[in-house]
Amino acid sequence: MTSAFARWDCQFVSTAAGMTPPQGRRPVLQINDSSRDDLRTMLGSIRQLRAIIREFRPELIVSTGAAPGALAILLGKFSGARTIWIDSIANSEELSLSGRAVRGVADLRLTQWPQLANRAKGITYFGQVM
User: Fold this and answer.
1) CA distance 33 to 54
2) DSSP secondary-structure letter at 116?
3) Type and span of the H or E element at 75
4) Domain presence at residue 59
5) The CATH number of the domain where 94 resides is what?
6) 3-class secondary-structure state, position 2
């Protein structure tokens, strides 16, 4: 998927430590993982993401993640970025909770399962990324 963004200056962010950037010279920034069940970790993720978004000023945010990814979409949208949510390939029966949470916020919500596409709910299928 990163090849689609090869001509842009991208900043990759992950909750995993020691990631190698798939392209570009910028290191992958690590943020703390968070969960909707733990307000303290969520607030920490919000602080980290807000600082990254403020410094990098992205035009587009693409997320494939859980709670931190949904937070990135929300914060990015408020900062004026266009946003794309790509739900995990693991969610074959219904859109993830985070994918549902960004409804009405993300400019584009994508599923990797054709049976989950629903124009009325704003869920689009273009194929699988894996």
Assistant:
1) 20
2) G
3) helix 67-78
4) yes
5) 3.40.50.2000
6) helix
